[in-house]
Amino acid sequence: MELAGKVNAALLAMCRPNCPTLALFRNSTAANLMLIIDGARTKILYKPEFFTSAYDNYGDGGILALLAHEVGHAIDMTAPPSWMKSGWTPELRADAWAGCAFAKMNLGASALRAGLTTLSKYPSPAHPSWGVRLPALEAGYTQCGGTLSLWERAARSEDAK
What is d(CA 16, CA 132) in angstroms, rounded to the nearest whole number? Predict the structure, then answer.
């Protein structure tokens, strides 16, 4: 999947040489999207209907955001950066990694807005409220070289609230 390759390329330098090997699998019985770690193997499972819905509503930016969050879970165990707050939950840490991926992928305003909106519209029960998640996403974005003015335009969007 081309979009998964973009996310991996964006975060590769952040976890090298300890990057996990990831595999992406379609799974019609998956809840929506999930990360499974089985020994040395790390898998991202997605329900095809979920990705279709997210893509139809938010395009590439939406899928990139969902994948970046899951990849964030996977690499967080191998390469926690010094800028990440130690008190953040695993979900907030994955959000920060997703924000970092947004910056490294150089997303434009439209794709960034779509990514934020997707993450706000499809939370899992384990995710904290959007108001708690957004600062972690912003921290990752700015710490990884994202432009603050672009972030502010995307985050102010009505859809991303």
Answer: 29
Q: Give the pairing of strands 22-26 and 33-38.
A: unpaired
Contact 107, 60 (CB under 8 A): no
| Beta pairing partners, 23 | 43
Contacts of 47 (CB under 8 A, 6+ apart): 26, 27, 28, 29, 30, 31, 32, 33
Predicted confidence at residue 43, as pLDDT, reads 93
Q: Is the peptide bond before 123 cis (omega within 30 degrees of 0)?
A: no
Q: What pLDDT is recorded for position 18?
A: 82
Number of separate domains in the chain: 1
Confirm whether pTM is higher than 0.90.
yes
Question: Which residues of the chain, if any, have pLDDT below 70?
Answer: 1, 158-161
Residue-number span of the structural domain to which 55 is assigned: 2-160
Full DSSP string of 11-73: HHHHHTTSPPPEEEEE-TTSSSEEEEEETTEEEEEE-HHHHHHHHHHHHHHHHHHHHHHHHHH
Sign, CA torsion 16/20/94/81: negative
